[in-house]
Amino acid sequence: LYSSAASDVYKRQVKEQVKTVKDAVTETVNSVYPFIDEIENSHMKNEFMDRENIAFDITLSFGGKERLNSRITLSADSRNGKIENKDGSVILFNDDKVFVSPEIENLPSARFAAYTWSYFFMFPYKLSDEGTKWADYKNGILGELDYDAYKLNFEAGTGDAPDDWYIMYADKASHLINTAAYIVTAGGTIEEAEEDPHAIEYCDYVDVDGIPVSTTWRFWAWRKDKGLTDQLGNASLSNFEFSQVDKGFYSPLDTFIEAK
């Protein structure tokens, strides 16, 4: 009993220390890029981070073919995630480690899925993460509308794909994120990725326990001189729930395989 109690105290201390470091990083980033503070406040980041986990259903299609039909649960600090697919297979991530149930054979694809869809959802809450570098982007025009636009790069060694970049378009009045253009360098070079950049459009925001959340994602081809061009896919998100999870919820079973 003493050992268990001491362990719990230690875990709380570590969690508080991690939070202190993250708060310091956020404060530094927001002092350098004050517009990030404005956008995070509009997305109610502090209130979101007070929750422990969020879960939602998602169906996602590209080119008319279903790519994802799942229940996703994410920790508010984005360190842990669980994708429970309709076919019964499961993908887990804990920080930089990804684990999959034995039904899943394509491990690189599973690792991509683990981080990509969760990052798109968590994007409004990760703008001031350690390793983010922002700059103004001059052309904020999408269609006939003008947005506040900023470009995101990452310091070397940040995440799985530090060479990726994003161009974020935020509504000038609400400061909610409307669109994020991006490249995916996984398995290729920056030059190859920049030949075919994509964009995710965040639509149909709803209030979920006081926090604005996009319930429709539209994926587009994006070009520097044209903005959004051809629609490539879409996703529908529903059944949002902020909740606690049981101990071990994000832990892999003995039969799971690590996707490296």
Descriptive overview:
The chain has 260 residues and is an alpha+beta fold. Helices cover 25% and strands 41% of the residues. The chain contains 5 helices and 15 strands. It has helices at 2-32, 34-42, 45-50, 107-122, 190-193; strands at 53-62, 65-75, 80-85, 90-94, 97-100, 132-136, 141-142, 145-146, 148-154, 166-170, 177-182, 198-208, 211-223, 227-242, 257-259. The chain has a 13-stranded antiparallel sheet. A two-stranded antiparallel ribbon has the order 7-8. Strand 4 (90-94) and strand 5 (97-100) form a beta hairpin. It is globular and about 50 Å long. The two termini are 37 Å apart.
Task: Give the key terms.
alpha+beta; 13-stranded antiparallel sheet; globular; disordered N terminus
SSE string, helix = H, strand = E? HHHEEEEEHEEEEEEHEEEE
Biggest beta-sheet profile:
13 strands, antiparallel
Number of helices in the DSSP assignment: 5
Report the β-strand fraction as a percent range. 35-45%
Low-confidence stretches: 1-11, 17-22
Report, as a whole number of angstroms, the end-to-end distance.
Answer: 37 Å
Strand order of the largest sheet: 6-9-10-11-12-13-14-1-2-3-4-5-15
Percent helix, as a range, is 25-40%
Compute the number of strand runs. Answer: 15
Cα-atom radius of gyration: 19 Å
Shape, please?
globular
Structural class: alpha+beta
**Overall pLDDT confidence:** 89
Secondary structure layout:
Elements: H1 2-32, H2 34-42, H3 45-50, E1 53-62, E2 65-75, E3 80-85, E4 90-94, E5 97-100, H4 107-122, E6 132-136, E7 141-142, E8 145-146, E9 148-154, E10 166-170, E11 177-182, H5 190-193, E12 198-208, E13 211-223, E14 227-242, E15 257-259
Antiparallel strand pairs: 1-2, 1-14, 2-3, 3-4, 4-5, 5-15, 6-9, 7-8, 9-10, 10-11, 11-12, 12-13, 13-14
